Amino acid sequence: MRHLLQKQDKRKALLISFLFGMATALFIFLPFLIVDKGFFLYCGDYNSQQIPFYVHVQQFIKDGGGTWDWGTDLGTSIVNSYSFYNLGSPFLWLTMPFPSRALPYLMVPLFMLKFGCIAAGACLYLLRYAKSSSFAIICSLVYAFCGFNVYNIFFNHMLEPVIYFPLMLWALDGLMIERRSGFFALFVGLALLNSYFFFIGNFVFILLYFIFQCLWGNYKLTGTKFAFLSIEILLGVGLGMALALPSFFNLLGNPRTENFANGMNMILYWHVQQIPAILSSLIVPPDPPYLPNVFTEGAIKWTSMSAFLPIVSVAGVAAYFKSHKGGWLKILLFTSLVMALVPFLNSSFYAFNASYYARWYYMPLLMICLATLLSLQDRSIDLGFGIKFALVLTGLWAILGLLPTQEEEQWRLGVAEYASRFWLTWVTAMLGICIFAVLWHFFRDKKRFASLLLGAVMGFSVFYSVIHISIGKFRQWENDADYVQQQYEGSAALQLPEDEGFYRIDTYSAYDNLGIWLNKSCLQTFNSVVTPSIMEFYPPLGVKRDVSSKPEPQYYALRGLLSTRYTIVPQEDMSAFEAEDPGSLGWHYTGTQGPFAVYENENYLPLGFTYDSFILMDTLNAAYEDDRSALLVRAIGLTREQEEQYGHLFHDKLSSMYNPTSYTGYVSDVLSCRASASYESEADSSGFRVNISLPRENLVFFSVPYDPGFSATVDGREAEVLKVSGGMMAVYAEAGDHEIVFRYRTPGFRAGVAISLVSAGLLALYWVDSLRWEKKRRLKKAAGATAGGAAPPPEETPPENLFEQAAPDTPVQAEETPAKDGSETPREPAPGKDKSETTTPRPDAADTPKTEQD
Predict the structure, then answer these.
(1) Contact criterion met (CB below 8 Å) for 291 and 475
(2) Calpha distance 644→642 (Å, rounded)
(3) How, if at all, do strands 710-714 and 504-507 pair?
(4) 8 Å CB contact between 567 and 599
(5) Could you give phi then psi for residue 82, rounded to 5 degrees?
(6) Could you give the C-alpha distances from 103 to 56, 149, 163, 280, 490, in angstroms and in order?
(7) Dist. CA 709–CA 747, nearest whole Å
(8) In this model, does residue 768 exceed pLDDT 70?
(9) Which residues on adjacent β-strands are paired with residue 699?
């Protein structure tokens, strides 16, 4: 079957989608660029992570790269930490020609590229099912600016999997229907390199897509096709191993991956608001990630829960469901809805982790856009019903704003926390579907219908996106007022000593991740993916460690233990810091630099020191929580197995469960540790080195998070790296002067890179062989056609103006001549159909993928 669209038409459609996607994004961000003078600020994670992570990783690479990143938390693998965020992103690598200081000003151009690529990728997939490229373009922009993507401006890196997903589906269709080889493997590999986290969800959804396509006969699965599919999956996964394999080893030790759904939580959400929130996300624009308004209980914040489509809403998919009794697309969408509503099935997109997220919604959203495309172009589908359905459903949502609610003996209307925001959201949703209803009612048979619909989609996307960003941004306006001054300008003004060996910093009342801007190990770090031993070390000491490390000032002993030399304080918060009790103990003011005051720790401990005492970890964990960090300055924490091997090295064992500590005792313990501390230390992106003189044999403690990638030598001789004190490292050394060197290699990274290189080579050979096979097939077919006297099919001329061809084709009406038996003669088929085809399409015929012209 010949495809209805020629290559020239497709290329024009892809270019239009890309450019219109970029243009729409520009108009969304333009007001905020003006307000922020080119430096786009939003709120929360975007300000704290997305901007500094781009700057940090780019600068790390430009500085020569390496394996160990001291600028993140207490130190972590650069690969393991940032492969989740942006290390595998092509957009990061596009910034390499630009200086790191320019990156904050490049965030909006990068957003524009991402939205343009999302639209183009969706258009490429939708074109296979389109009779007119115009509707494919429109639906691709609906997809690009759906609520999920607008919501995830907050999580900038989560837009990139949305680019790869439609490309993978397009390549899978091409492989299974036309045997277009190589592309599926390529996009699978790029998607895995970009994000192992999202790739898990991609695998689940694409598997369902594949099964339903096979069951409905769209994919004719033969042994040969299965073999080629298997080869491409293996090659694609192999391509992504450079980052996926080390990330896999890292996740094995991450306690956040060990939380699985169980019991009733597998089939029921734990809060009554969860399911209504999921269903409502289909019909109204999303709230800002940190600021839910109607549904405020349950797992709502930061979950990316939005399935809203601008202008078309649920009209297209509702019409499609009404008009089809079955079909792979309807069953896939119904399955997706069930999976969203059942916790265990929802968690399958995240390796069955119990933490709730809706970060897979972009996949069924593309299917909803496909259903909308089919409803727009097929006049046998009652789109009018879908529009009425969407209007009624959206109208009913207003009931939530009228329900009587009592709070503190006061009655008010509505369940929303902010009534004005509720009505603004509702009016916005109603406005979009009303615009669609007017366009469909008055212009659906006009040539300019598609142009008007396209303009409506773009204009409305700008309108509701600006509202969405504004609600989130301006709520934080005062809190973020000094962001540029402190993070961007202040970090450049800070000149901390570089000749004092290794040390860490701390911050007080500063914005998140100042240490990342300074490329200094900092106790205050907001990064979800760090060395797992950091997450083991902090909680027993009373410090929460989930997505960030933020030990309170009261844990003054941690500052000495972790080699923290300076605390950076905004000048306006100096009085508060100096009044902090006991957090300000042991700090003295050294001066101001830019917007900051700098305080030095009098109880700083160098990297690498020894103890006279040890404490069993069981005893430590039984002690009073507030005393534990001070106890780790007094004694090294050992397991019972380590006690048997190394216990004889120490003068004393702290055996009592009650070991009272005080600031005076802490100072005394610091002085004792300093007596045998290193006199020289140096850290770089491959590890660290210390020189130390020991009066007797002992374990040398290092406040560096344990990682199996570390190896150590003492005076050039290999030494065993011990995991001590609940997550830090130590090595044994004899009496005397020593050079101790730690080197880090990311576990699995070299093997992953080797697998990726081999896979890339095999993919190239596979591609060449496939092209050779395709050429032979074409020549054989052409020879057969010539021998049979068949002429090649004439080329179709693509329309000059894509949007003049966009109105749904009206079926050709043949004269109805009564038959002799009184019945009506069948009508002539629509143009382009074979006369042998019935005029009533199969329920699933419209969503059957078309094949390319040979």
Answers:
(1) yes
(2) 5
(3) unpaired
(4) yes
(5) -100, 0
(6) 10, 22, 22, 37, 16
(7) 5
(8) yes
(9) 732
First vs last Cα of the chain: how many Å apart? 9
Q: Which amino acid is at 831?
A: P
* Residues 732, 719 contacting (CB under 8 angstroms): yes
Q: From the CB of residue 713, how many other CB atoms can be counted at a distance below 10 Å?
A: 16
- Mean pLDDT for the stretch of residues 541-557: 94
d(Cα 113, Cα 441) in Å, to the nearest integer? 35
Distance of CA 325 to the CA centre of its chain: 36
Tokens of 851: 């094949």
Closest residue by Cα to residue 610 from 554, 536, 531, 675:
675
The residue type of 10 is K
Q: Which residues contact 785 (CB under 8 A, 6 or more apart)?
A: 791, 792
Q: Is the peptide bond before 582 cis (omega within 30 degrees of 0)?
A: yes
String of DSSP letters for 107-139:
HHHHHHHHHHHHHHHHHHHHHTT-SSHHHHHHH
Task: Report CA torsion sign: 80, 81, 84, 90.
Answer: negative
In 3-state terms, what secondary structure has residue 683? strand
Could you identify the residue written with the tokens 């993978």?
Answer: 168
The Cα–Cα gap between 299 and 355 comes to 9
| Global confidence as pTM | 0.91
Residue 847's pLDDT band (boundaries 50, 70, 90)? low
CA angle 451–457–462, rounded 5-degree value = 130
**Residue matched to tokens 């900092």:** 522
Tens-place pLDDT, residues 711-726: 999 999 999 999 999 9
8 Å CB contact between 689 and 738: no
CA angle 293, 295, 298 (to 5 degrees): 130
- Name residue 522's beta-bridge partners: 505
* Distance of alpha carbon 602 from alpha carbon 609, whole angstroms: 17
CB 842 within 8 A of CB 329: no
Position 681, amino acid: S
For residue 367, what are the β-bridge partners? Answer: none
> Distance (Å, rounded) from C-alpha 259 to C-alpha 274?
20
Asked whether the beta carbons of 542 and 587 are under 8 A apart, the reply is no
591: left (phi over 0), alpha (psi -120 to 50) or beta: left
CB atoms within 10 A of CB 735: 11
Amino acid at residue number 722: L
Q: Which amino acid is at 698?
A: N
* DSSP at 381: S
Higher pLDDT, 533 or 499: 533
What's the mean pLDDT when you consider all of the chain?
A: 90
The tens digit of pLDDT for each residue in 578-602 reads 999 888 899 999 999 999 999 999 9
**Tokens 């929460």 label which residue?**
544
Angle CA 746–749–754, to nearest 5: 155
- Which amino acid does the sequence have at 787? A
Q: How far is CA 297 from CA 133, 269, 275, 291, 625, in A?
A: 43, 12, 11, 11, 31
Rounded to a whole number of angstroms, the CA Rg of the chain reads 31
- CB 595, CB 514: distance < 8 Å: no
Torsion angle of the four alpha carbons 364, 366, 367, 372, in this order, in degrees rounded to the nearest 10: 130
792 pairs with which residues across the strands? none
Q: Are strands 504-507 and 410-413 parallel, antiparallel or unpaired?
A: unpaired
SS (H, E, C) 277-341: HHHHCCCCCCCCCCCCCCCCCCCCCCCCCCCCCCCCCCHHHHHHHHHCCCCHHHHHHHHHHHHHH
DSSP state of 502: S
Task: Decide if 226 contacts 505 (C-beta within 8 A).
Answer: no
76-77 and 564-570 as β-strands: parallel, antiparallel, unpaired?
unpaired
Closest residue by Cα to residue 846 from 503, 469, 145, 377: 377
Question: What is the distance between the alpha carbons of residues 460 and 104, in angstroms, rounded to a whole number?
Answer: 27
Q: What is the pLDDT of residue 326?
A: 86
